[in-house]
Amino acid sequence: MRPLISIGRFSELTGLSIRALRLYEEHGLLAPAIVDARTGYRFYRWHQRAVAERIHRLRELDMPLELIARCLHGELGVGAALEQHGAALQAELQQRAQTLQRVREAQTSRALPDFEVRIRRQRAWPLLSLRYQTSLSRCEADRHEGYRSLRQRAARLGTRAAGPPHAHHPPQGGFDPDDYAVVLSLPVRLAVPGSEPGVGGLIAFTRLSGDLTTLLHAYQALGDWLARSAYRRGGPSAERYLCLLRPGTSPHTEVWAPVHPVKEGL
Question: How far is it, in rounded angstroms, from Cα 24 to Cα 14?
Answer without folding.
Answer: 13
